[in-house]
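Intended use. Records like the one below are meant for learning the mapping from a protein sequence to its folded structure. Do not use them to infer anything beyond what is encoded.
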Amino acid sequence: SASGWEATLAVAGLLLATGAFVRFSTLFPIPLSSEVLSPPKRISILRHLRVALFRPSVVWGLVVLLVLVQQGLGRLFEGMIPSAPEGEAAPIGGAVIPFLIGQIVLIGILPLVGIGLGIRNLASGYGLATREDRKRVLWMVAGTSAAGWMILGSISGFVLAVALDLPDWVPVGLLILLVLAPTVLVIACTIALFYAGSVDPGLVLKRSTVFGALGALGIVLFAGLEEVLSEWVASRMGLPGVVGSLLAGSVTGGVMILLRKTVGRAAAKVLPGQGETPRGKSTLPRD
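Structure written out for the chain above:
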């Protein structure tokens, strides 16, 4: 039911979280690369796509592109979707259909594909890790994979429940499963951090502080720039407002990259003893 900036931030958060999960699964418990994976057994193009997503530039570039596409679709079809009287559903047809298809792909199919890929990467990394590392990261891998399967299973089950007209208790049970997925993830990660020693808790605290501050700053900066630049390119250059969104996203991304080290140094001073861990000593993803 969200609209405007509420919808934009919600979709951006979903896509960024999916991208973060894909990057985490690529680096934990060991960094994955085309050299450490076994040869493809079936479709080689899927392996090439998977290996391409091992690179952070590809993952984050794709996330930013999808956020901008979602924003552009909203601007493009704004005003084309017919309104309906209160309490009635709007008629679906014409320009509404491609808009709905694009939204389903952006906020439904692609995040699910990302979750599935992340689960696959975690399983591969776990299989390639040493026996000692497997024991240490078991809770993290198991909890993350379980939460991912709960999300995939519940959403897929919703589709089947609607298509097969299953009893009402089935969708309710699937909804409960979906809601419990984050709880399973948090519990498993807590045990992994403070009991199994999968990741240094101090380093987690520092990274959370750094990226939390950057995220808050990025949202404020993008919101302000998007409003100004969209109006400017529309009034002065006669271009669609989505061009302003593209410019705002590019400027915000560049500023965040430049500020990352500065914010990291500031966090290290505020959090005593949280300086950079020597390279190779931490299993926490570096990006």
